[in-house]
């Protein structure tokens, strides 16, 4: 299965949300070597890649926009479609 994870909060000092994202990725890296993971980060989270860059089933991509509306409703869905992801995990959906 190809699974995308929206981890744009990493590197932004967002306390609980950032800790959740880091722990989720860490635990998946320890438990699962079968599925393919596509991790989407902001520019501020680029340093996080170093820790997991040697895992063959983890790929990382920097999302260039910091605008959450563009990320959630344009950039992530488009990138997920192009990468043929089976699932995209996001923390929350912006509601109006």
Fill in the keyword field for this structure.
96 residues; alpha/beta; four-stranded parallel sheet; 4 strands
Strand and helix map with partners:
Elements: E1 2-6, H1 16-31, E2 36-41, H2 49-52, E3 58-62, H3 68-82, E4 87-89
Task: Give an overview in words.
18% of the residues are buried. The longest helix has 16 residues, at 16-31. The model has no long low-confidence stretch (mean pLDDT 89). The protein starts with a strand and ends in a 7-residue tail after the last strand. The protein is an alpha/beta fold and 96 residues long. It has helices at 16-31, 49-52, 68-82, and strands at residues 2-6, 36-41, 58-62, 87-89. It has 3 helices and 4 strands.
- Main beta-sheet annotation: 4 strands, parallel
Order of helices and strands: EHEHEHE
Characterize the overall form.
globular
> How large is the radius of gyration?
13 Å
Number of helices: 3
Distance between the termini: 32 Å
Mean pLDDT across the residues is: 89
What is the number of beta strands? 4
- Which secondary-structure class do the elements indicate? alpha/beta
Percent range for β-strand residues = 15-25%
Low-confidence runs of at least 5 consecutive residues? none
Helical coverage, percent range: 25-40%
Main sheet: strand order: 3-2-1-4
